[in-house]
Amino acid sequence: MDKLKAMQTVVSIADEGSLTAAAAALDSSPPAVVRTLAALEAHLGIRLFNRTTRRLSLTEEGRHYIESCRQLLAAVKDAESALTTDAVEPSGQLTLTAPVLFGQMYVAPAVTRFVQKYDKVRVNLMLLDRVVNLLEENIDVGIRIGALEDSSLVAQPLGSVRRMVVASPDYLSRRGVPKHPSDLLKANCVRFSGGMGPWWTFYEGDRQFSVPVTGNLEFNHVAPAADACLAGLGFGMFISYQVAHYIEKNHLQIVLESFEPPPQPIHVIYPHARLLPARTKVFIEWIKQELKNVHP
Length: 296
Fold this sequence. Notes:
Elements (H helix, E strand, L loop, with lengths): L2 H14 L2 H7 L4 H15 L4 E3 L4 E3 L1 H22 L10 E7 L1 H18 L3 E7 L13 E5 L8 E8 L1 E5 L1 H7 L13 E4 L6 E6 L2 E6 L5 E2 L2 H9 L4 E5 H9 L4 E3 L8 E7 L7 H13 L6
Parallel strand pairs: 3-4, 3-5, 8-11, 8-12
Antiparallel strand pairs: 1-2, 5-14, 6-14, 7-12, 7-13, 9-10
Helix pairs in contact: 1-2, 1-3, 1-4, 2-3, 5-9
């Protein structure tokens, strides 16, 4: 049995979702794919896929084995690319993910400049406000804000962001500048349902506490919440990059800085540090340089 070919076959089955689609992707026939899968499962003594007439899904053992196959196939590809122009001129498909607004503001422009320089790379950037499993969703590189939980990924720091309370100069001149978070209890607060909701968290020394805020405006997107604060309708709590442009122009002012939570880290994350294709390695270094000047 050609083990390398067998590994390519099972990875293709996992990626394509069916034996027929895998056969088409491999320019093979469905019976040949079935025989290869059966031979490999017999050799390993485990079932890699649960198969029904309608559905094909990886077993737990299959998930682990497929991931090992990806690493080995990537290593083979790396070895081959060292002998080709791909080592000098990156090419191929690169799939990325980042949070929506941060991605729009910082990552997408950096990706555009990357593709302008490396025009043989095809990039798919997915902007998603959820924690994405890179391995399960076949994503090469992610930008993540906040604490990291998945220790199987390699993470390199890009910087940090703050969670801050802001208001317009007009609103502050009318209502006064709060000295303590408890002053927000009597103020109008513009809430963002995707953020802290009705409870805003603060720190006083090492002590964490939350303040229940109220107001007559709540949004499920950041942009209109920021616009309402710009219009002088109250205080808002945002991540620093979400309102950095308004703060720089003094359209919004930061308050209660001494009570802010600790900064949240920004990381570029990816699997298999030693087994990355050239395009991924080059992009990681590119995005590290591009985002190093993001203001916290």
